[in-house]
Amino acid sequence: MTKRSYSDHLELPCGVGLKNRFARSAMTEALADVDDAPNKAHQTLYERWSYGGMAMQMTGNVMVDKRYLERPGNVVVQDESVLNVLQDWARAAKSGGSQVWMQISHPGRQCPIVVHTRPLSPSAEKLRILGLFGKPTAMTSEDIQDAIQRYATTAAIAKKAGFDGVQIHAAHGYLVSQFLSPITNQRKDDWGGSLENRAKFLRKVYAATRAVVGKDFPVAVKLNSADFQKGGFLIEDSCQVARWLEDDGIDLIELSGGTYEQMSFVNGTEERQRDSTIKREAYFLEYAREVRHAVSVPLMVTGGFRSVAAMERAIVDDGIDMIGLARPLCVQPDAVAGILDGLVEKIGIEEDGLVIGRGRFGVNARNWFINLVNTVSRVEYYAWQMNRMSRGLMPQTDARNNAVGYFLWYLNRTTFLGLRRKFARKS
Ligand SMILES: Cc1cc2nc3c(=O)[nH]c(=O)nc-3n(C[C@H](O)[C@H](O)[C@H](O)COP(=O)(O)O)c2cc1C
To answer: Residue 362's pLDDT is what?
Structure first.
């Protein structure tokens, strides 16, 4: 038997092939203006990445409904008015040889207050982070049916515009993930309660999406391995949901983990952070091994991969099919090409300069505010690098010692763009 390798071709159940085992995982670009449409900045950024060697790049989360965003600056696709600019975006993103898939999402309660004061969610469970999020309204049956249809509409437009596949965002505490978790889904009707009921929203979104894109078009799901909160979505649940998705005909499951309240998708699990003997690489690999035993559908794992040795082990020893990379590709857009050419062993940067209070507080500080600043700044640093690349500039990795600066950059962009957007929509 020949050994599996990260340069192998992968054929998906729908028949579409991927040229190797690397994908750039979704990262919200925050580059749209008040019209919520993709623009030249998206084209420049994605064209840059398209030459980076990965088989596929996933867009940042594209919203299905203008009323509810993950943040101002999101692209929204809810009708064909944006078809031309979407076509330009897809063309640029494929120009260097990668495929481009669109990640489709609805924030549910993780919608900043500057966008909507009463976002939708399965139940009215408020997200309490610095007053940045409003109390959600529990969705009615009509809201649920409307949301399901919106995912399908966005997927159909993505296909028409030339995107090579779509991914339903069912992780990180956004709307689908809110339905899956018993913490955020306290419904008493048949959308809540048992896991089967909680997974119904995701399965309906998948079915509606598949119905409009057809059986030959890649449809993926990004799923939490767990949300790492007491009483939340567990790894056993994740394995069962993966089995259902496999039965339903999914092409690829990307595993991640966490929510806004427990940001494991960028910080790793607490268990890993505590245990200094475990390398903080590949945060969800142990969980992915369990899902691997449950299903044979192609699996992608994202979160924390930094050394080529760990990526190789995941592919060769653990039977993982795709490696998802996000932050390293904001500072080294050609990292995958380097790996495939055998030129690099490690990717990404040391992040010490991106946290304040190190030693006394660290990333896992008791002080929740310092924790928040550190987590936000460690994400926004990369958003800032994407912003540079979108203007045709190179990443600037020597300017990284400014945790507070990146936190303020985020607040500033979110608030001012949010207010400008509100104003533009009213006038
Ligand atoms: C700036 C930034 C934006 C992100 N936006 C998204 C997003 O839109 N959708 C998503 O599923 N994950 C998003 N993520 C999470 C990444 O896809 C990925 O799961 C996470 O960064 C861990 O992978 P990494 O260690 O390779 O960076 C984002 C991460 C960062 C740093």
So the answer is: 45
Q: Which of 28, 168, 400 maximizes ligand 1 atoms within 8 Å of its Cβ, making it the mutation to test the pocket?
A: 28
In a domain, 404, yes or no: no
Residue 293 lies in a domain: yes
Provide the CATH number for the domain around residue 342.
3.20.20.70
What is the model's pLDDT at position 293? Answer: 98
Phi-psi region of 352 (alpha: psi -120 to 50; beta: other; left: phi over 0): alpha
Quickly list DSSP for 291-353. HHHH--S-EEEES---BHHHHHHHHHTS---EEEE-THHHH-TTHHHHHHTT--SB-S---GG
Chain segment 213-266, per-residue pLDDT in tens: 999 999 999 999 999 999 999 999 999 999 999 999 999 999 999 999 988 898
- Please say whether the beta carbons of 10 and 321 come within 8 A: yes
pLDDT in tens, 312-361: 999 999 999 999 999 999 999 999 999 999 999 999 987 766 777 654 44
Domain count, the chain: 1
Torsions phi, psi for 59 (to 5 deg): -70, 165
Structural domain that includes position 165: 10-351
Question: So what's the pLDDT on residue 162?
Answer: 98
DSSP string, 104-138: EE--TT-SBTTT-SS-EESS-----STT-BPPPEE
- Contact residues of ligand 1, CB 6 A cut-off: 25-28, 60-61, 103, 169, 171-172, 222, 256, 265-266, 302-305, 325-327, 379, 382-383
Query: What is the distance between the alpha carbons of residues 299 and 288, in angstroms, rounded to a whole number?
Result: 8
In this prediction, residue 276 carries a pLDDT of: 52
On whether the CB atoms of residues 61 and 96 are closer than 8 A, the answer is no
Domain-located, residue 1: no
How many Cβ atoms sit within 10 Å of the Cβ of residue 57? 25
Residues in the chain, pLDDT under 70: 1-2, 271-280, 352-353, 357-366, 399-401, 427
Interatomic CA distance for residues 185 and 86, integer angstroms: 34
Count CA atoms within 13 Å of residue 115 on its CB side.
Answer: 27
- 121's CB contacts (< 8 A; 6+ apart) are 108, 109, 136, 137, 138, 139, 175, 178, 184
Does residue 392 sit within a domain?
no
